[in-house]
Amino acid sequence: MEGTRTFLDVKEYPDPEVQRDRVLTLEEWQEKWVSRKIGFHQEQGHQLLKKHLDTFLKGGNGLRVFFPLCGKAVEMKWFADLGHSVVGVEISELGIREFFTEQNLSYSEEPITEIPGAKVFKSSKGNISLYCCNLFDLPRANIGKFDRIWDRGALVAVNPGDHERYVDVILSLTRKGFHYLLATLSYDPTKHAGPPFYVPDAEVKKLFGSVCNIRCLEKVDVFEERHKSWGIDCLVEKLYLCTEK
């Protein structure tokens, strides 16, 4: 695939626990949007998702697709254009508004009565609903269950100490026969504090292995010049497909 180099074997680093106590507050994430420190946003969408889209969707029509910590991911528009219903959650109202503006979508907003201070932004067609709130509060809004979940930039952004809590929320939102597509990053965590955080294979298996079949679809080198500022010299993205056991 153009622009990526495939790895057949990827080193697992021995010190994932070094990041275990690292914490970013919601206010710090909101500030990243204000100060435009959003290098995680991909204007052209995620290339591995494009490549494995058929495997992810598996021919489903009119699916409900969930985007945890969605930012302004352009893939939300892709799925809506394919006839699916998209729901996302994002703490930054700025990021949500930018999504609708940049995708030329008209939208409305309304408060979420179950979550004080939170809002939901809905496209005029009704096929995209983005909740502006803490992901851990989201189940209180009774948003229903999902056929597909695309997790790119969510698990790797959640504070490592909250991984189990995060997975509990994610799995509580799944329908029977769900597909959960997960992108993680591998690098030396002793050289970069995160986020994004290092999520090794063992952590994926620990979090999902008891309820999911886990298949690694691809591993690619995604190291760029800008990553040198993290103090690392290697960055590998891994794409996993988790399905119901």
Automatic annotation (TrEMBL):
InterPro entries xref list: SAM-dependent_MTases_sf, Thiopurine_S-MeTrfase, TPMT
Q: Is-annotated flag, keyword Transmembrane?
A: no
The cellular component terms of Gene Ontology attached to this UniProt record, alphabetical and capped at eight, are:
cytoplasm
Query: Where does it live in the cell?
Result: Cytoplasm
User: Which top class of enzyme applies to this chain?
Assistant: transferase
The primary site where this protein sits is cytoplasm
One Gene Ontology term of the molecular function aspect: thiopurine S-methyltransferase activity
Which keywords, in A-to-Z order, does the entry hold?
A: Acetylation, Cytoplasm, Methyltransferase, S-adenosyl-L-methionine, Transferase
**EC number(s) recorded for this UniProt protein:** 2.1.1.67
Q: Which SUPFAM superfamilies match?
A: S-adenosyl-L-methionine-dependent methyltransferases (SSF53335)
PROSITE patterns, alphabetically?
A: SAM_MT_TPMT (PS51585)
Provide the GO biological process annotations.
Answer: methylation
Give me the reactions it catalyses.
Answer: S-adenosyl-L-methionine + a thiopurine = S-adenosyl-L-homocysteine + a thiopurine S-methylether
Q: Name one Pfam family in it.
A: TPMT
Q: Which family, according to the similarity comment? A: Belongs to the class I-like SAM-binding methyltransferase superfamily. TPMT family.
Complexes and interactors? Monomer.
Q: Known HAMAP family for this protein?
A: Thiopur_methtran
Q: What is this protein called?
A: Thiopurine S-methyltransferase
Please give the organism.
Enhydra lutris kenyoni (northern sea otter)
Write the gene name: LOC111156711
